[in-house]
Design brief:
The structure holds 2 protein chains of 2 kinds.
Chain A: H1 2-17, H2 19-48, E1 51-57, E2 72-76, H3 82-91, E3 96-100, E4 112-114, H4 121-142, H5 147-153, E5 161-162, E6 168-169, H6 173-209, H7 212-216, H8 221-257, H9 262-275, H10 280-290, H11 293-321, H12 329-352, H13 357-362, H14 369-376, H15 383-411, H16 421-429
Parallel strand pairs in A: 1-2, 1-3
Antiparallel strand pairs in A: 3-4, 5-6
Helix pairs in contact in A: 1-8, 2-8, 6-8, 6-11, 6-12, 6-14, 8-11, 11-14, 11-15, 12-14, 15-16
Chain B: E1 3-14, E2 17-28, E3 32-36, H1 43-50, E4 58-63, E5 66-67, E6 76-79, H2 91-101, H3 106-119, H4 135-147, E7 153-157, H5 165-180, E8 184-189, H6 192-198, E9 201-206, E10 209-215, H7 216-223, E11 227-233, H8 237-247, E12 249-252, E13 262-267, H9 274-282, E14 286-292, H10 297-308
Parallel strand pairs in B: 3-8, 3-9, 6-7, 7-8
Antiparallel strand pairs in B: 1-2, 1-4, 4-5, 9-10, 11-13, 11-14, 12-13
Classes of the chains: A mainly alpha, B alpha/beta.
């Protein structure tokens, strides 16, 4: 036990003192913030660009319907000849030309769009909607239906969502759950991959440094492996905590510099809540507060540890089996695969139906359960499912750690042997 | 005899490959024991089993007449053949860590490290990283780490391979001094001349089997072939040579001598002694050189290995 503690301490310090660790810990939040700002800036650039679209309307009934917006400006070229209009659009490098032909019987012919490149989906939809609205209205009028009466008779429906215990939620609530679950699951995957790789590299380092035999003459290989896995996990939790603290500080600084007083906003919110007790905003806030945030956090830590132990002991075994990092490629794919599967199942099946059979099954399978279950937790998971999932994870952990330690024990003293799956299987029997 | 370490009928296989086939060795207390054998004979496997790094399939190890226990690592110092240190860790920190893994308290480890660092004149390295040191410097640190916890049994796997000559001499000197202080040293090597210099006992392992073992002087006695190298001056050399060839098995010998004399290698019958030859030669020649040919460990090694092949 004393040795295990010593090893955990050394591994932890070795990770935390590493320059890359320090740089990444403090830089990656900044990079993340910078990336968001860049994306925001770029999309602003994109939307501030105004498109000029020419209209060539032979029927003369639509020109008033195409209204200039922030992103589009319509020019009516109907008084030119069609050929001239086309040439002008080209010369002026306008976005395109909408051609609305008139049929001989007075009806509207096939509408066409001319442009250098195919128009964006949004533009096409807007054009189609404008024309079809006008045509529908005309059609209705021709059939003698009073449009103003129809408009007056329109009813707006807003379904109120309520669960069986009578709690009201906004329609946003599923999105919020999705976002929280998705972020947690994705973060978990990243942590497993990053820290699993760290464990693997550290095993390879000990092997190539040839210090391994000096150490295993003092401690049991399984202690070294466990110490390494545990020490590295502590480094991971340290990084996570620093990020949380850093995030809080950054948030405080930004709100301070932007002049947003947290207290006053809270007061305003209270007022808003008071005024419109059941407004969407207050529902939104209650939704966030109604999220099982605490249990999400607790289960994040539990599933992180469970999933991380599972994968990092596999990573440790891989590190022991090879001589250098370049040899790890053939083993990496089968390790990444279940993690990717977990993420895909999470993003497709869980969001579609959080309690469907696919989601439930994958939140039980230990290799994917940490990710999938985390994504399901915001939607509410019965305790017995959690219990089954966690016990399966625990049992698998014990088995995998045991198997990995067998490969590890043999592998760390093996040099120059190209490890194959067959070879690894043999090592299990030594 | 008082043995510190006894290995009894050790058998170990890796898959289909037998690494050790019923090998037994007895290492007497306060002696230097050499484990000899060509590369791949199974020496390192045996040392790893003694260090409890690998477990034997069959057989038992006794340390101090008790079956080997996991806690016994405190009494063993091991310098493996493949040795290295953490490159980015400071020398002092690293030595402290490894010493603590051997069961020393931090304060104790620090005190002893300071003593050894001073002794080997490496005190200035405490805060250096291993990657800043040369290979020879790192070897000194490794040696200190091996002996720091004052183990009863010191195990060196090929201690002289990879050491530069200066450090190799230093290691030899320290090994002998540690033996004086009561430690027992077991080392493996395929370099026979180091056995001659250092070892009291030896065992020869070849292709997973132990071929011979015992006190080095006993083994040499056993392997000597009653042969003598003689250098002499005679009035009638051809006649003497003819006479000798009749009585003994005679060959040419080469050794350095200030005389320009007849140099011969003469093998006696088993029941004859050196005196027989001396008596015979006394009246016939002036003897300048008379030495019994003692087989070197290298000769014994080659002889045994080829005999069993």
């Amino acid at each position: 036990m004393r040795n295990l503690k010593l090893i955990i301490r050394r591994e932890y310090l070795a990770r935390v003192r590493n320059k890359t660790f320090i740089i990444m810990t403090f830089l990656s939040p900044l990079i993340l913030v910078g990336m968001f700002m860049l994306v925001g800036y770029l999309s602003m650039l994109n939307t501030s660009e105004q498109q000029i679209i020419a209209l060539y309307d032979e029927t003369g009934i639509f020109s008033s319907d195409f209204k200039d917006g922030r992103q589009v400006q319509y020019l009516d070229f109907s008084n030119l000849s069609f050929e001239k209009a086309l040439v002008k659009v080209r010369e002026q490098e306008y976005y395109g030309l909408i051609y609305i032909p008139q049929k001989e019987n007075g009806g509207v012919g096939q509408i066409q769009f001319f442009g250098v490149e195919p128009p964006g989906l949004g533009t096409v939809q807007a054009v189609e909607k404008t024309i079809s609205d006008r045509l529908t209205k005309r059609e209705l009028m021709q059939r003698g239906i009073d449009i103003s009466a129809m408009e007056a008779a329109e009813v707006n429906v807003d379904v109120e969502i309520q669960n069986f215990s009578g709690q009201r939620t906004s329609k946003m609530s599923n999105y919020i759950k999705m976002i929280f679950g998705g972020i947690a699951g994705y973060l978990l995957m990243m942590f497993i991959i990053i820290y699993g790789n760290m464990v693997m590299r550290s095993v390879i380092e000990e092997k190539t440094n040839r210090i391994i035999e000096i150490i295993v003459s003092s401690v049991k290989p399984i202690h070294l492996m466990l110490g390494k896995v545990l020490g590295t996990s502590l480094a991971g939790l340290t990084q996570f905590s620093i990020w949380v603290i850093l995030g809080a500080v950054l948030l405080w600084i930004t709100s301070f510099t932007l002049g947003i007083d947290i207290l006053s906003t809270q007061k305003e919110q209270m007022e808003i809540m008071g005024q419109m007790a059941q407004s969407d905003l207050s529902l939104f806030l209650t939704d966030v507060y109604n999220l099982p945030l605490l249990s999400l956090f607790i289960f994040f830590v539990i599933y992180f540890l469970g999933g991380y132990f599972l994968y990092s002991s596999i990573y440790a075994a891989i590190g022991a089996a090879v001589d250098s990092e370049t040899d790890t490629q053939q083993f990496m794919f089968p390790v990444i695969l279940p993690l990717m599967l977990g993420i895909y199942v999470g993003f497709f099946a869980v969001i579609e139906n959080p309690h469907g059979s696919i989601s439930t099954v994958f939140s039980m399978i230990p290799l994917t359960s940490p990710i999938v279950m985390l994504m399901r937790i915001p939607f509410g998971v019965p305790w017995y499912e959690l219990a089954i999932s966690l016990s399966l994870l625990l049992i698998t952990n014990l088995g995998v750690v045991w198997l990995a330690s067998k490969i590890y024990r043999v592998g760390i003293l093996m040099y120059g042997k190209k490890a194959s799956y067959k070879e690894l299987f043999k090592w299990l029997k030594y | 005899m008082d043995n510190l370490l006894v290995a009894e009928n050790i058998y170990k296989s890796f898959g289909n490959y037998t690494a050790l086939n019923n090998v037994s060795i007895n290492v007497p207390r306060a002696s230097v024991f050499g484990l000899l054998g060509p590369n791949g004979a199974g020496k390192t496997t045996l040392l790893r089993i003694i260090n409890q790094i690998t477990m034997p399939d069959r057989g038992a190890i006794y340390l101090d007449n008790k079956p080997l226990h996991p806690d016994d690592i405190q009494h063993i110092g091991y310098l493996p053949e493949e040795r290295g240190l953490y490159k980015s860790m400071k020398v002092g920190e690293q030595a402290l860590y490894l010493a603590q893994l051997k069961g020393l308290s931090k304060a104790d480890a620090k005190m002893r490290l300071e003593y050894w660092f001073e002794k080997l004149e490496i005190s200035g390295w405490w805060n250096k990283k291993i990657q800043e040191l040369s290979k020879g410097m790192a070897q000194k640190v490794q040696f200190v780490i091996t002996v720091l916890h004052q183990p009863k049994l010191l195990i060196f796997d090929e201690p002289f391979s990879g050491f530069d000559p200066v450090n190799a001499r230093l290691i030899k000197r320290e090994i002998l001094q540690l033996k004086e202080e009561g430690a027992t040293i077991l080392f493996s090597t395929h370099r026979m001349e180091s056995v001659e210099e250092l070892c009291d006992y030896m065992a020869l392992i070849h292709k997973s089997n132990k071929l011979l073992d015992g006190r080095v002087s006993d083994i040499k006695k056993e392997y000597k072939s009653n042969t003598f190298e003689v250098g002499m001056e005679a009035k009638n050399e051809p006649a003497l040579l003819a006479e000798l060839q009749e009585k003994f098995i005679v060959g040419n010998a080469t050794f350095k001598s200030i005389h320009t004399d007849l140099k011969l290698r003469i093998q006696l019958q088993e029941n004859e002694s050196a005196n027989h030859l001396l008596e015979f030669l006394l009246n016939r020649a002036q003897i300048n050189h008379f030495v019994e040919v003692i087989p070197s460990v290298n000769d014994i090694f080659i002889q045994t290995v080829t005999r069993d092949a």
